[in-house]
Amino acid sequence: MESRNSGSFRTADVARRSGYSVQQIRNLERDGVLPPTTRSETGYRAYREVHVVSARAYRALAAGVGPVDAKAIMRAAHCDSPAAMLELVDAAHAALHAERRDLAATRAAVRHISDEPITDVRQSDSMTISELADAIGVRPSTLRHWEAMGLSSPQRGDTRDARIYTPADVRDVRIVYQLRRAGYGIPALRALMPELRDTSRRQDVLTRLAARDHAIESRSRALLAGAAELDALLTRPRTAMT
């Protein structure tokens, strides 16, 4: 029977040391997350330290970037060249950075745009759909879609297709734009926009944004932990991992 003392591990040993079940370890080997194993004379799988480190790396990476991307990183880690793996890890860090940046912009939008006073409104302060689309950098068709989804309610002009956006309408569109950039889907925004228009409920929105910020931080720390395990795969002498 394989044991830690003999230099090889049973499936149960790898599972215990990495926080997975025995079946999950077998699945990870099947999916290429773990390198191939050898068999003992009695037919049992003979796992080594490299399998334990790989399982721990995948566990952390999956928490940081999701199982699909984590599997891609681990498969690349077991190739002869680490370049592909490093490129995937760099891309994961960049994606989290982009989420963090967009979330900060969203928080600023909620705090400042939604608090803009709308007084002494004049007709000249309104914008056409083309003017507003150019101002925020989207296509007019995008604004029409947001209107159809109930995210904005521009006034109608002299013709059937003409739309006039009052300062309040412009403020709504700017908030929708920032929240879309932060990853909010249309259904979520349909529920969220009434709260943003209601100043008494705006703090609830900021609380939810803080929760998203915490989730990003947790994923970033998980990715950092996974990267540390990956570094062990790259830097330890091959004999130390077998």
Features:
242 residues, mainly alpha, Multidrug-efflux Transporter Regulator, Chain: A, Domain 2, 2 domains, three-stranded antiparallel sheet, two-stranded antiparallel ribbon, 5 strands, 5% strand, elongated, disordered N terminus
Number-wise, the strands total 5
Cα radius of gyration in angstroms = 26 Å
Helices, by number, come to 10
Q: Please give the alpha-carbon distance between the first and last residues.
A: 17 Å
What would the CATH topology of the largest domain be?
Multidrug-efflux Transporter Regulator, Chain: A, Domain 2
User: Which parts are unreliable, with pLDDT below 50 for 5 consecutive residues or more?
Assistant: 1-6
Can you give a write-up of this model?
By secondary structure, the chain is mostly helical. The protein has two domains: 11-96 and 222-241, Multidrug-efflux Transporter Regulator, Chain: A, Domain 2 (Orthogonal Bundle), CATH 1.10.1660; 98-216, Multidrug-efflux Transporter Regulator, Chain: A, Domain 2, CATH 1.10.1660.10. Helix content is 64%, strand content 5%. The chain is built from ten helices and five strands, in the order ααββαααβααββααα. The protein has helices at residues 11-18, 22-30, 49-65, 67-77, 83-113, 129-136, 140-148, 167-181, 186-197, 202-235, and strands at 38-39, 45-46, 127-128, 155-156, 163-165. It has a three-stranded antiparallel beta sheet with strand order 3-5-4. The longest helix has 34 residues, at 202-235. It is elongated.
